[in-house]
Amino acid sequence: MNLVRIMRHLSSGQWLLRRVFPTATLTAIEQTIQQSEMNHSGEICIAVEGTLNTLALIKNQTARERAIEVFSQLRVWDTEQNNGVLIYLLLADRDVEIIVDRGIHARISNAEWKNICHSMESAFSQRQFEAGFIQGIHAISQLLETHFPYDPKKDKNELTNKPTVL
């Protein structure tokens, strides 16, 4: 049990989430996703969570473990082409995780996803949340454009472009 982490989570909350992600920021992120998905067949989904609940903290749940849960809860895996991507931010830990569906995982290495996560975390450490997400979406889009080009006959928007705030 990490008491420093628990205190950080307990001192954060929905108020911090609303301050860091006002409506204008969420709208800019949503529009960036919408524009990016016109260039590839991938489905990008964003989830932002302020803190973990007390039980998860006591069990020392990692952001990666929580991201996998959220990937399932938001049904990011439930796309026709198995091309869903979840960008998950656990704000209290400033930890970004990218979880991808099996169709994408087979073509793009974990190292590339980690680089994008680190770049986003760097922006977030400078309190550049909107810019960090937009840069991350653009980086993911470049990978998806290479491996999953847009096909107007097959592609449809299967997941919401609006960021989910948990």
From TrEMBL:
Q: Name the InterPro entries for this protein.
A: TPM_dom (IPR007621)
Q: Give the domain of life.
A: Bacteria
The record ties this protein, via Pfam families, to: TPM_phosphatase
Gene3D superfamilies found in the cross-reference section: 3.10.310.50
Where does the record place the TPM domain? 20-142
- What name does this protein carry? TLP18.3, Psb32 and MOLO-1 founding protein of phosphatase
Q: Which organism is it from?
A: Nitrosomonas ureae
